[in-house]
C-alpha cells in the first residue's frame, strides 16, 4: 500500500503476519530496498519515501531493522 501525503512524503507500507516479532533478514532487506527504489524511479516529483512495516507483534532487533522508518503493531491499530 502506498500513501502520498501533502507534506511530500510517501509512505510505502509492507504488511507481514507473524505469531511473534517479525525479523527482517538479508533477502527481505534487499526486497524492501528494491521496492523503494522502483517507487522512487516511477515517482516524478521529489518526495521522501518512508518504509512502514505493519505486523502484529512488532519488529525484532537486528542489523536489518533500520530498513524501515516506522513500525505499526496490533496495539497501534486496536487501542
What does this protein look like?
- With about 80 residues, the chain is α/β, with parallel strands linked by helices.
- About 30% of the residues lie in helices and about 25% in strands.
- Strands 1-2-3-4 form a four-stranded mixed β-sheet.
- Strand 1 (about 1-5) and strand 2 form a beta hairpin.
- It is globular and about 40 Å long.
What's a quick, concise take on this entry?
The chain is α/β, with parallel strands linked by helices and 79 residues long. It has two helices and four strands; from the N terminus they run ββαββα.
Query: What is the first-to-last residue Cα distance?
Result: 22 Å
Stretches where pLDDT is under 50 for at least 5 consecutive residues are: none
The residue fraction in helices comes out at 25-40%
- The helix count comes to 2
User: What is the helix/strand order?
Assistant: EEHEEH
What topology, given as strand order, has the largest sheet? 1-2-3-4
Cα-based radius of gyration, to the nearest Å: 13 Å
Structural class: alpha/beta
Task: Report the β-strand fraction as a percent range.
Answer: 25-35%
